[in-house]
Amino acid sequence: MKLSDLCEAFSExxxxxRGEEIHPDRASVLRLRTLVxxxxxxxxxxxxxxxxxxxxxxxxxxxxxxLVPFFVDPDFGVRFAFGYWPPGLRGWAHxxxxxxxxxxxxxxxxxxxYDRAESYRRRELVPKNLFEATTLEVGYIYEPAIHxxxxxxNDWSLSLHISSPRDGEAVDDLxxxxxxxxxxxxxxxxxxxxxxxxxxxxxxxGRQEADLLARVLQSSSAPEARELLVTCSRFTSPxxxxxxxxEMPERPGESGACAASRVLARVHPDLRFALRGDPLQWTVVVxxxxxxxxxxxxxxxxxxxVVYASTSMGFDVRDLPGDLSDEQRAAIADTLEDVGLFKGxxx
Length: 347
Hints:
By secondary structure, the chain is of the alpha+beta class.
């Protein structure tokens, strides 16, 4: 089943169309939850969702945010989004005011729930239950509820979220209190994205998230997964890209001999970095909101290439100067990309 097939089920299950001020009944939400759980096992639905997510990543729409919808059904307004959970990350306690379905697609998540009525009465979060969910477990919310997901493990987790277009609407006159966010507020990352160095941090995070998608595709039995790794590898870390080469179908111009044949662009035009040191060891120093920060050490062999990069908004990796082999040029480019100073560009 593809995403479009799942969306066709909204009509069959009696879900209200976009703009209708009613909610589906509980039985319909439960049937959708069962359908999602069953189809995730086969892998095609998840692979198709990742296809849509990669399109959003390519457009740059997810920069600095999480749970950005990769698809919104035009007829029913239902939103689909992925949640990325680094090791140990705790999400904000937030309130859903309409139905939603969440599935763990990779690793695990714990979900703390709170007594909504008592929390509003006391004006503080009142714990209720703790749920531990592993890969392919699917949960749901029907009535307004407060919860906070978190990743208790040392590995990244990936979750799929399907939510009502009415989630976030006020359902009564209860006033918010400290420590509680709306679902929309919980989607925003704390970074204000006001300094060029924020793009460096976002680039690093984006590669980690793409690496996670690649790992999910690697474990998928869906026939489209291997082909999709080609697209996913454009956004992964250089280390993951190298690991994927043996699994991706080879295309003209993409052999290992052409590893240096690519273009990099500075992640932000106002990002400034320079070199400091002596001929034995040089350090690349970047301007951050907290002052200069060391990011990488550079050998004398790579010095000319890094100096060239530091004065360029973008460059073809083959143009890096110095007495270097193609493999060495590719390795220097990988490092500049890996620390978040540059990003790969489609050519």
